[in-house]
Design the sequence.
């Protein structure tokens, strides 16, 4: 979506429709100004405080308060080809099983999010599917618009879409097309992780969880799969910064959104059961921003290797030795026993 804050997004990593072309947000971060817990203003970049800069790129709000970010910019659009291919749920298993082979030669200009979500009440969709689960391929092609059909048409041909809403638009509109499905103010839980492959077994688990999802008025559950590869996977060294992406071909997410506190337990149980069922298919590293904190073992593995975890704890000890910044996905200073 277009409206999450840039600070938390960047410090955790930052992924989206451009990651296959231009990498994660942190891959494009050049420098930060930060206020330390004892009130000093410092700069962090490759030459000044490089250890801090290493940790700020993925370690979240653990080290200080960042007051400015300097990024490498890329020209995108302004015209792109983007939109949604909406398929009936009963085609989801077949499409998802064929999708990885189909994407093996996908260009970096293709950004793709797969969503299994309740169908919006669009006049282009048959009324009987409104509110029922559908499979949506959310496509953003930022390459030459005239060539986008070469990528989009084969995706549409993976099944028989209920609606093909992909067309020419602007990058700014494409990047906000999902804002409407992320309303403010609801209760929410978020689970997820990296998948080394979109295996048939993982697809079975995800699809089975759709039937098990709680259903309450005004509430909804969505499963997302973000297609990685390209720049985010191939152009950066895993150890170059705290953010981890090693081995990740897809990122899966389960999102529950509801209003009444009385439903909290239902959504928690659904998400917890799904996380457990996905564990054998997922990597131990992950993207900290797109899941709730899952506890000590998760925190130890989310940034990748044990060596990276130790290095983060050592940077934390240097910049926040008393763990004042601890109401976050916490990296404990190395002096604290875990
Ligand atoms: C609907 C929705 C969609 C999302 N989609 C994406 C997506 O497509 N891609 C993606 O990468 N992420 C996505 N996210 C996750 C998003 O990256 C995180 O929620 C991120 O924390 C948002 O940053 P914020 O500044 O708004 O967060 P806040 O809630 O303000 O902060 C979260 C944490 O970040 C730290 N922090 C924030 N600002 C600073 C600062 N200036 N200095 C130091 N630490 C700070 C703090 O630890 C804070 O607790 C999504 C989240 C939601 C709710």
Sequence:
């Amino acid at each position: 979506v277009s409206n999450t804050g840039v600070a938390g997004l960047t410090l955790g990593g930052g992924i989206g429709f451009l990651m296959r072309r231009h990498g994660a947000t942190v891959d494009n971060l050049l420098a930060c100004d930060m206020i330390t817990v004892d009130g000093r203003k410092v700069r962090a970049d490759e030459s000044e405080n490089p250890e801090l800069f290493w940790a700020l790129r993925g370690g979240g709000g653990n080290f200080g308060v960042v007051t400015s970010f300097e990024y490498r910019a890329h020209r995108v659009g302004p015209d792109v080809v983007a939109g949604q291919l909406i398929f009936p749920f009963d085609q989801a298993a077949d499409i998802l099983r064929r999708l990885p082979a189909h994407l093996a030669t996908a260009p970096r200009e293709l950004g793709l999010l797969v969503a299994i979500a309740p169908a919006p009440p669009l006049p282009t969709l048959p009324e009987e599917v409104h509110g029922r689960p559908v499979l949506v391929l959310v496509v953003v092609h930022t390459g030459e618009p005239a060539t986008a059909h070469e990528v989009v048409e084969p995706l549409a041909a993976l099944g028989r879409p209920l609606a093909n809403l992909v067309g020419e638009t602007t990058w700014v509109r494409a990047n906000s097309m999902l804002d409407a499905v992320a309303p403010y103010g609801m209760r929410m839980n978020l689970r997820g992780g990296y998948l080394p492959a979109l295996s048939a077994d993982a697809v079975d688990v995800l699809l089975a969880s759709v039937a098990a999802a709680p259903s309450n008025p005004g509430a909804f559950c969505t499963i997302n799969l973000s297609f990685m590869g390209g720049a985010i996977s191939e152009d950066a060294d895993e150890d170059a910064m705290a953010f981890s992406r090693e081995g990740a071909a897809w990122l899966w997410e389960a999102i529950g959104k509801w209003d009444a506190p009385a439903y909290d337990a239902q959504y928690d149980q659904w998400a917890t059961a799904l996380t457990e069922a996905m564990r054998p298919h997922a990597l131990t590293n992950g993207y900290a921003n797109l899941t709730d904190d899952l506890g000590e073992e998760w925190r130890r593995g989310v940034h990748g290797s044990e060596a990276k975890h130790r290095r983060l704890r050592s940077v934390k000890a240097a910049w926040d030795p008393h763990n004042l910044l601890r109401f976050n996905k916490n990296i404990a200073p190395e002096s604290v026993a875990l």
Observations:
- The longest helix spans residues 264-278.
- The CA atoms of residues 237 and 298 lie 22 Å apart.
- Residues 6-74+295-319 form a domain with the Uridine Diphospho-n-acetylenolpyruvylglucosamine Reductase; domain 3 fold (CATH 3.30.465.10).
- DSSP finds eleven helices and eleven strands in the chain.
